[in-house]
Amino acid sequence: MVRMMKLVSTFFFFLVLLNLNACGSEPPSTTIEGPSNQIIRWRMVTTWPPGFPVLQEGAERFAKNIEAMSGGRLRIKVFAGGELIPPLETFEAVSQGAVHMGHGSAYYWAGRIPAAQFFSTVPFGMTAKGMNTWLYDGGGLKMWREIYVPFNVVPFPLGNTGVQMGGWFNKKIESAEDLKGLKMRIPGLGGKVFAKAGGNPVLLAGAEVYTALERNTIDATEWIAPFHDQRLGLNRAAQYYYYPGWHEPGTVLELIVNKEAWESLPKDLQAIISVAAQAENLQMSSEMEAKNAQALEELQEQSHTKLLAFPEDVLAKLRRLTQQTLNEQAADDPQFKRVYEAYTAFRQKFDAWEAISEQAYQRTLESENK
């Protein structure tokens, strides 16, 4: 059955590829000769639903900024997930050159590139601040690009969700024993760790989450953070809202560009894309923080939401199981091990500095408020 589904998916993708490359009113790239009036038209696909706040909106803003910064020389048409290709075919479409750009998150391709998860998020990993520092100035982006070379794709950081919430639950979690047998929508490495804790991870698309929680098909779900959770109405389907989001402490969103398309650009347009990506990375991250702060206040004031912290023993067990999960995968995958070691080495230096800088400062504020 799994083999048949893969064959169907592959067949569908190549049909899409043929359709995109067929003659039509909008060719993949249109060039008007001349050094000053060259116009290049690109397509960009995302993994997000149409109109999805912050993420899809940010991808569209990024494209508009590039057109403005380039004086109209590079024009990018953005398609939401499903408008041109299925959302999770984004990486393949960019890799094959069916489209020029894509926007999503690297852990979506974990089945194909397990090490890619380190360039998105891992349980109990670095926050957005640490990830940006590692990627831009700690060698992370260089390694990320090396790993994507065989796939004909050039990655850039383009947004971050920040520390996510731990999820919505229909029962209190008072000890690690309460996780056993719990049906929770939680994907990726977080799902593997949750399974080791005795839970039952369930994979569901975002559109199915609310109904499954409301009808008790699942006992709990993680989604993103207060702003998006509130928009999905999860506060009407569950009473207990837990923090912190141990499974996604700083999820990096990625821009991917087809390598041949990237190399075909003049240097000034390459620079514009790079700078626009950095600007949108900051904008999207800032917007997430502002909207989450407002939404959390509304959830606490206007609904029956009970905001609760995970008990220390629960977090301690999940952290031990995360270490075990990462070590097991590193033992089976040399590339995963190489990235894991680089990530860990940088994090140790970063954490040592954080301990006597930002964290030490936060502790002084906490002591004043006691």
TrEMBL record:
Na(+) binds at residue 223. GO terms for biological process: transmembrane transport. Substrate binds at residues 164, 185, 222, 248. Residues 1-24 form the signal peptide. One of its GO terms (molecular function) is metal ion binding. InterPro entries: DctP_fam (IPR018389), SBP_TakP-like (IPR026289), TRAP_DctP_sf (IPR038404). GO terms for cellular component: tripartite ATP-independent periplasmic transporter complex. Keywords: Metal-binding, Signal. Gene3D superfamilies: Bacterial extracellular solute-binding protein, family 7 (3.40.190.170), Periplasmic binding protein-like II (3.40.190.10). PANTHER family: EXTRACYTOPLASMIC SOLUTE RECEPTOR PROTEIN (PTHR33376:SF5), PTHR33376. This is TRAP dicarboxylate transporter-DctP subunit. It comes from Nitrosococcus halophilus (strain Nc4).
